[in-house]
Amino acid sequence: MSREQKAVDRARKAFLTGRSKSLDYRITQLKNLLRFVRERQNEIAEGLKKDLGRSECGTPLYETLGLESEINLAVKYLKEWAAPRPVSKSMMTISDQVYIQPEPLGVVLVIGAWNYPWAVTIGPLIGAIAAGNAAVIKPSEVSSHTSKVMEDLLPLYLDKELYPVVTGGVTETQELLKQRFDHIFYTGNGTVAKIIMEAAAKHLTPTTLELGGKSPCYIDTNCDLAIACRRIAWGKYLNCGQTCIAPDYILCNPSMQDRVIEEIKKNINDFYTDDPKKCLDYGRIINQRHFKRLMALLEGSTIAVGGENDESECYIGPTILRDVKPDAKVMQEEIFGPLLPILTVSSADEAIKFINQREKPLALYIFSSDNKLIKHMIAETSSGGVVANDCLMHFSVSSLPFGGVGNSGMGHYHGKYGFDNMSHLRSCLIKKLKMEGMNKMRYPPHTEDKLGWARFFILKHVDFGSLGRMVLLALMAIFVAVILQRYFTD
Predict the structure, then answer these.
(1) What is the pLDDT of residues 155-184, one digit of tens each?
(2) What is the rounded distance in angstroms from the CA atom of residue 133 to the CA atom of residue 43?
């Protein structure tokens, strides 16, 4: 039996003991996870520095503070999320208990990504724990130092049987995918996502796929360009451009291109000095394979700003490309690096047409002072999320579901959406063995008279407050008794 199979079997046996179903146990595990995040800041930061060149202050800002917030939210509202959820009734079910009961799915596989290895690995884990599941955690081998920190330290805080960490590369992931899970949560690219879906299909396992794509950024002529470009520069060059929701390319009017370039260039200098290579807040490309891929994307495009690079350090400076053509190499795949192409369009409608001719992106960014234009672009396009006049910030709002659509993914998480995503929302109807006369309208022989009453009781929906429900229930009982006695008594 492989190491991976043993980990999954242990997790399932632990789940079958029922201990993860206890709300108090879930809360204890979540609090332990919070303690891990707070107590192990040094080890977390050191791993990210080695993997991505992340600065010490950048680690909490872009990784762990969000996790702390998500854990606190789950602990605070878990009992409310896990409680039975009443639903509206028809007249047929007015005297019954009708509700939704969230229940754990079972054993979940969480496959993380390397660009924000804590946020996108532990984030889904929070939802899995809150929902009462066991979870096998597979960090990305690409961010190897962070993976090692997870493997060594996470079991010191969490239930080792319920939440094992399995490390390794392609071989280990393939072995994991041979096992039966009750849900698979994957963050990464579309190519691997297809492999995961194919493996999941063999066991009819549902999947959540958090992917990426080329997220457009439209800049309207009617906006404060200085502020817009400052926010775009931050969103694009954060983590050296290795962000799944980073602005992938800019669409703007030809008359604006030069000023957009100048404004973004000015903010690059403000953020990272005139020598980003020496700036602690500017990271590195994850490895040489990705470095070479990014350098190849520059072919055929005109560099307006930046372009400096050093393969030995996996360094590519903040780069802006001008007059980019739709068929350029840099426009054929998600960039996932510090290259920012600018394409020109004559209007918002042309931008909409350009966006809609391509795969649905994970995010759409619109910069404009015209609310009607913003609403128009939202109505006429489709994307995982939309942000007007900023970048990335929707990821930080726990009350918003985060996820893709179409080519950019399926399913969502964060806050209650993460809990629901990792739960089975079980439909429950509890009747009493009384009022059997009410059922005569559904029993053969079927007649027009019975159909008429069935139509009334089934199609009439009610949604009352608790006091009103009690009063109306009593009135309905009297009403139904009279009607049934009149029409359905033999």
Answers:
(1) 999 999 999 999 999 999 999 999 999 999
(2) 27
**Closest of 168, 249, 222 to residue 389, by C-alpha:** 222
Task: Provide the 10 A C-beta neighbour count for residue 488.
Answer: 17
Q: Which structure tokens are listed for 46?
A: 């050191």
- Give residue 76's Cα distance to chain centre: 21
CB 348 within 8 A of CB 220: yes
Q: Is-contact 228 267, C-beta < 8 A?
A: no
| DSSP one-letter string for 29-86 | HHHHHHHHHHHTHHHHHHHHHHHH---TTHHIIIIIHHHHHHHHHHHHHHHHHHS-EE
401 Cβ neighbours under 8 A, 6+ residues apart = 412, 413, 414, 417
DSSP 157-178: TS-TTTS-B---SHHHHHHHHT
Q: Which of 170, 165, 119, 162 is nearest to 138 (CA)?
A: 165
Give 72-104 pLDDT, tens digit per residue: 999 999 999 999 999 988 878 888 999 999 999
- What is the residue whose two structure tokens read 């229930």? 473
Which residues are part of the catalytic machinery? 210, 244
DSSP 193-252: HHHHHHHHHTTT--EEEE-----EEEE-SSS-HHHHHHHHHHHHHGGGG--TTS--EEEE
Count of residues making up the chain: 490
pTM tops 0.85, yes or no: yes
CA 58 to chain centre: 21
How far apart CA 321 and CA 482 sit, in angstroms, is 79
d(CA 139, CA 165): 8
Residue pair 211/193 in contact by the 8 Å Cβ criterion? yes
Q: How far apart are CA 418 and CA 127, in angstroms?
A: 5
